[in-house]
Records
---
Amino acid sequence: MNVVIVGAGPAGLAAAEHALWAGAQVTVLDQAETPGGQYHRMLPDAYAAKRPERVQHGRAEFDRRRRVLAHPRCHWWPGSAVWAFDRAEKAVHILRGQSDGGGRRRLTLVPDALILATGAHDRTLPFPGWELPGVYTAGAAQALAKGERVAIGERVLVAGAGPFLLPVAESLLGVGAEVVGVLEANPFSTVRKGWSSRPWRLAAHAGKAGELARYATTLARHRIPYRLGRAVIEARGVDRVREVVTARVRADWSVVPGTERTYEVDAVCVGHGFVPQPELAVAAGCVLDDGFVRVDAAQRTTVDDVFAAGEITGIGGAVTAAAEGAVAGCVAAGGEPSPELIRARDRALAFADRLATAHPIGAAWRSWLSEDTIVCRCEETTYGELTRAAEDTVCPGPHALKLGTRAGLGPCQGRICGPTVSELRGGTERHHRPIVQPIRLGELAARTEGEPG
Amino acid sequence: MSGWLLPRDRDPVGRTDRPIRITVDGEPVTGIAGQSVAGMLLAAGWTSWRTTRSGAPRGVFCGIGACFDCLLTVNDVPDVRACRRPAADGDEIRTQSREENA
């Protein structure tokens, strides 16, 4: 069996480990130069860090996990952008070389089984001024702090929804930024209800309680307020953010008038959970449910010999992703997953449900928007333009909306605004990105340079 | 004030800094080997290096390659995501506008 795994984060590495145990030949591809994905983001090799474990969460586990890449039956291909999947030939098309570089090598692989572990990126809801430089996703702040030791600013506000905001604040403190506050939009009652029901089901995530306690201590030590039921509703500045406006919000995230507060900051990072990166699964013809790849109990997608694991099947964090990857790797390699492996995966999945219940997106967030608030960052399509186009009975449907307003037609191809535009018009997101990764026309026209050695 | 690179002597990870130098629109910018182009520019005080169709400034937003806000030109190759591209000593970076590449 020849198994190709796309993504070297927790899901992809666990998949590789278990596919190797089941006897397969494995190739692991990742766009990055180093394995780990976003969760186990590594410092650059050039930093020659003596104590990388000081910033890398779960370093011992990661060191153990990444050793699979050195297995004699494992091929590790960093710097590999998978840009297409040919359904007829079951071929995976890859460009290998410098990120977005001109001289990348074009290669194809035709595996017996394909495991997609492509992960997710931040969801950030729009608000007036969110397009200003100095407004970052929570993930950007984390990637720069943890991956490069760069602080995005001197005075930073962290806001949005979900437990991820806490490690982001910790990382910012770790690179010397002043964190003026951490704001969770959901009220205490929602968060408590989500996390405290059926606590025994959190057994798979025992480490999480300790982790939360550590964040709480860190915030307290630095006297950083952690407020629930409060959101960033506006960023202000001319060429870059200078101040942000926050407000108390109700359980549905509607603003409580008169509770606005202004903070002077030079950076703000905002994250409202995550959205999956399903482009390859879509290219392979996999069925999606609500944007996530549909999988069965063996992590099979709806397409033969294509498996999916991790955040593209549901947002559940690294433990869940690894548990899913383990099952996917085993089955893809023709093995039979042990009952323990299945149980571990099922227990981990309960965490994903809980996360969604404790940190939902309140439907009234759109009350933050004004007519001229930008929704599509690339094409600068405003909320007003979108509302008017959506109400136009002459040109109904998402296709007309896209052509009429240009939302989603810019460089990111709707990766950032897609879920928001769909939500605003009351539909489900449609994915049409036949080219999974950007590729230059010259690269597309070039003959395949040969099969990988 | 904006972004910066945590000084080596304050960084508990125990880095070894190897200085590198690039130019941005001809202006020299220094950083250390291993930094992304975006990280180097942020640490040098830049917050934006691209303009949109309307001329509005953009820099880093998502930091992991999803948003394409941080596009710039590296050694004459346009549309490189600054957050995904490790900087190399001597790189010649140019800021971009949408009109230029339309």
Note: The first helix of chain A runs from residue 10 to 21.
---
Amino acid sequence: MKFCGYIRKDGSVGTRNYVAVIPAVVCANEVVENIVYSTKMTEGILHHQGCCQTPPDLKRVTDSLIKIGENPNVGAALIVSLGCEGVDTDRLEKEIRATGKPVERVNIQEIGGTSKAIQKGIDLAQKLALEISGQQREEVDLSKLTMGIKCGASDTTSGIASNPVIGYVADKIVEAGGTVIFGETTEFIGAEHILQRRAKTPEVAADIKRIVDDIENRAKAIGVDMRKGQPTPGNIEGGLSTIEEKSLGAIVKSGTKTIEGVLEYTEKPCGKGLWIKNTPGREIEVLTAMAIGGAQVMLFSTGRGAPQGFPVVPIIKICGNPITYDRMCNDMDINAGKIVVGEKSIEEVGEETLAKLLRVASGEVAKGEAIKYTKSMDIYTLGPVI
Amino acid sequence: MNEERIKGLKNNEIDNVATIFGQVVVSSEVDVMDSKGNTIVVKVLDEVPYGHKIALKEIKIGEQITKYGEEIGVATKEIKVGEHVHIHNIDSIRGRGDWAKEGGKN
């Protein structure tokens, strides 16, 4: 199996060719939004971090932004700095440039304010867009693909229809020599024993247990009943009764293959195959984690209807609930609800999704991209804002 | 009489609950298919919303609720065959910081 992508200087392959406009800190978001509004081929990497955080989190934010800049779907990067942020903006610029991509930078305080920064940013973004716009897609093997997977706004159809479809595709990608990353550690609770059995080594199994224990202990440490947050009120209305039930349905989307290892939030896989990334459950931080991991495309399963989309990575939405699919068909790419009503099998919808995935990786627009729902991004930090 | 019958799914043969795909009114009969494709008819005792679960067996207080062949929680009340199974009569046993705070169960 093959797809057509943009071959980068570091050997990675993009499914998109964007100028990523990256705010080094939350304070630069509005300048970035103005630049992106005025310049073709750009996507803003808007986030809420970058200052008044503890050093481990500032490093985490810097590392995350670097790796999003390194994502194969980014052809060039424009960094917008306020000038007094806590993240290491010099390292951000230097490390993205090391991949061979053109990188520019504008500093709001230095240039004399937001309007001047916007004007300069538009000029630089336009220059970068022109510079990368001539690059053509070339046919490459599916082994060059890293796929991120996620479920959101789940109901009981997610575990029965849409997540099994993603599991089917995940197995096919791994068999083709590609890479698949899944996360949502919160939604392993009660199902971690099944994942542990699929771990490549006893050490990987122990890592899976460790990350699940950590997240469960955080609830215990503050003496709260996790049920108020997981399952969510929407999950409960959709028929999911407990976190265990939600987890057992959620992990199905990882398929059946061996789990190669557990990655921390800012890590990339160091080999092919299926990987776990330690993340919370919430969409925006998980989608960001997948992009950090190098995902050039994501499959997203839903039952109640989740519209979120990430700036530089196309997301294919697979809906397990036939009623939701009909109601939200402008957001949903694949109707896995046909499985629930007995019209199609998991394999049939799986093949349909795989074909869609190859087309989207080759340039076909996913529905979320068509409606420009592409700003669901933020970096998961652990310490306090200070 | 030509109305489409409401379907349910029992994911694993050891499950004591099934998921119902339809809006069920009291005393409706639903066709529950198991993982081998066999169908049994269950009379539902409550109004059950789309995608919610019903009991396939009598379940006692404290007894395990099984779906996908795995434990998804425990019963907090006696549950009859055909009764709606949801947060009013079952409880999660994981992520229970409240239990730890009470110095107990978990």
Note: The beta strands of chain B are 7-9, 17-21, 29-33, 39-43, 53-55, 64-67, 70-75, 84-85, 90-91.
